[in-house]
Specification:
Elements lengths: L5 H7 L3 H27 L4 H26 L4 H16 L1
């Protein structure tokens, strides 16, 4: 019997547009995580320095992958910024 994780089932049931929107949200979230890790790194001491270096590298690798994936789908960075602001406007309403 084949088991699918919940996330995989959700992705399989999405339309192409919904997949693109989720990709854009992941890019936006990853950018924010990277920005926060960089800020935290500036104030880190002792063992936390290594932790934030790892977190920065991991988030940068994830962001590079997601941007590469977005480019293959024809999604430009300008589109991502535009959609980010639309999401923020929708959440404010």
């Amino acid at each position: 019997m084949q088991y699918l994780y919940l996330k995989e089932q959700n992705i399989e049931n999405q339309t192409e547009r919904e997949k693109e929107i989720e990709l854009i949200r992941n890019i936006i979230d990853t950018r924010e995580e990277l920005k926060n890790a960089n800020k935290n790194f500036e104030f880190a001491k002792d063992d936390l320095v290594d932790y934030y270096v790892y977190e920065i590298k991991a988030n940068q690798a994830k962001l590079n992958y997601l941007i590469k994936l977005a480019k293959t789908k024809g999604i430009a960075v300008d589109m991502i910024s535009d959609i980010k602001y639309r999401f923020l406007d929708e959440e404010a309403v």
